[in-house]
Design a protein that fits this description.
By secondary structure, the protein is α/β, with parallel strands linked by helices. About 55% of the residues lie in helices and about 10% in strands.
Length: about 475
């Protein structure tokens, strides 16, 4: 073999080794990233961990390079997650002794802020450090998450029910052309119930109805990071001018601003300035303003001075409605009704987990060529189901129904046929079938040894009455909320 051939062979061998190393690194990163997603939650993971790109491991120092697209994101991840990333990589690969987090070489750095004399930044000047969005930044295909708003989170994609209709209507009013009767709007909801969806939807609609308007969307924690960086860089005048130039302010997870006195004060002044100019403000949190510990009273007053719209946990009817709406994107794939009913009854903690369970089930069925069935759902969603399962007993249902209708508990097993007793007993049988895995004969035995045909009759009767009688439907909905809470 010639010398040239030997060199070419060595180069090929080196390239193959590098390719294999890259594949192994990617596999390890997939495992690490998945673990961080479970620890941090979907939102933080998508915003900060998912954009990380892998570099190479320096064999001498044991340093693994991790790259992010902007200087801001690199600094943010370095401050928040460097230790966690380093530990995870040390566990995954013994040769990694530390990680170096930086902007990818050759990537354009985030430009310095350029403001007009009036303190406003040009609307078409890209701003990646703060999610500042102008109407003329809209492309033909609409917004993407890269500029702060998720294109899929619109009012049209939001499924409404009794639990969230107030917040939905208030959010639409906030984004409408006419001036809203209240500002700020404060959306209160537990994790995964739709408050972030409504924030994004407000942003989309506002930009469509208000030509060349400017909005600011971020989490309270990101607001804190921006504030501290501006303070350290002695650029507070620019920070304040830019923040107060927006027409709509959207701040998510406001509970994370707890305890930061200087940032609270700046947010307070910003709220006052924007309200005085008739601009719109929307905040979202997992608790009511009065439950925010460590927040200055003046700021609490501003947060609650408009409308506080509470999003309640979705009841079983809304959960079914959400599942049916999500199925449209999988057409013509069909999911049996008993599977949808099973998911709606068992995944109750939040809507995000419910939709995630449906997505996982359908993806597994498509990738393996199996049909979606109740058995497949029970087998493949064990982690989600076990986390959500709070076993409701027939005894608990009977107690709750008796309290609701103000009858004695013994009437559940008695032979009395008075209407005031029979109807609550039938409701309890219906709920026992809906909320527990018990069979008709098992339910009958818990109601004074009644025959299974009696239970079947009760279930069908209540189902029919719910369609025809608004009062009966309201009673059942109230009982479902009590039992599932």
């Amino acid at each position: 073999m010639t010398k040239t051939g030997e060199l070419a062979g060595k180069r090929k061998a080196t390239d193959d080794m590098e390719d294999l190393e890259a594949v192994n690194l990617a596999a390890d990163w997939a495992d690490i990233s998945q673990g961080l997603r479970k620890d941090l939650g979907h939102q933080l993971h998508s915003q900060w961990i998912k954009p990380i790109q892998l570099g190479k491991i320096d064999a001498e120092t044991g340093t693994l390079d991790l790259y992010l697209p902007t200087e801001f994101s690199a600094n943010w991840v370095k401050d928040r997650f460097a230790d966690r990333l380093s530990l995870a990589w040390k566990i995954a690969r013994s040769e990694v002794r530390k990680v170096a987090i930086s902007v990818h070489p050759g990537r354009r750095q985030v430009a310095d802020l350029r403001l007009h004399n009036d303190g406003r930044r040009p609307a078409n000047d890209a701003d990646t450090s703060m999610m500042a969005i102008g109407a003329d930044t809209l492309g033909d295909s609409g917004f993407t998450s890269s500029v702060g708003l998720d294109a899929t989170l619109t009012f049209a994609a939001f499924v409404t029910g009794e639990a969230n209709i107030l917040a939905f209507n208030a959010a639409q009013r906030m984004a409408a052309t006419e001036k809203p009767q209240f500002s700020p709007l404060y959306l209160k909801a537990a994790t995964g119930q739709g408050k972030t969806h409504l924030l994004h939807a407000i942003g989309h609609t506002f930009l469509q109805t208000h030509n060349r308007s400017r909005i600011f969307y971020c989490s309270a924690e990101r607001f804190m990071v921006e504030f501290v960086q501006a303070l350290k860089a002695n650029r507070m005048i620019e920070f304040k001018a830019r923040l107060r130039s927006f027409d709509l302010l959207l701040v998510d997870d406001i509970q994370f601003i707890i305890g930061k006195a200087s940032a609270q004060e700046e947010l307070l002044y910003t709220i006052d300035a924007l309200l005085n100019e008739g601009k719109r403000l929307v905040f979202a949190a997992d608790r009511a303003p009065q439950a925010l510990d460590g927040v200055e009273p003046r700021l609490l007053s501003r947060l609650s001075m408009g409308l506080v719209a509470d999003i309640q946990p979705a009841d079983i009817e809304l959960r079914k409605k959400i599942l049916h709406s999500k199925l449209t994107k999988f057409a013509p794939l069909s999911v049996p009704e008993d599977v949808l009913d099973f998911l709606a009854r068992t995944i109750t903690r939040n809507v995000r987990e419910l939709v995630g369970g449906l997505n996982k089930l359908i993806a597994y069925a498509q990738l393996t060529g199996q049909e979606v069935s109740l058995q497949l759902a029970e087998e493949q969603l064990t982690d989600i189901l076990s986390a959500n399962r709070r076993r409701i007993t027939i005894d608990e249902i009977q107690r709750t129904v008796c309290q609701f209708y103000r009858i004695d508990r013994s009437e559940m097993s008695s032979k009395r046929r008075a209407r005031a007793v029979v109807r609550p007993r039938q409701v309890a049988m219906y709920l026992s079938k809906v909320l527990t895995p018990r069979s008709y004969p098992e339910i009958g035995r818990k109601f004074g040894g009644r025959d299974h045909s009696t239970v079947i009759h009760a279930v069908r009767l209540i189902e029919d009455l719910r369609q025809r009688d608004a009062d009966m439907d309201g009673d059942v909905r109230s009982l479902l909320r009590q039992l599932e809470s």
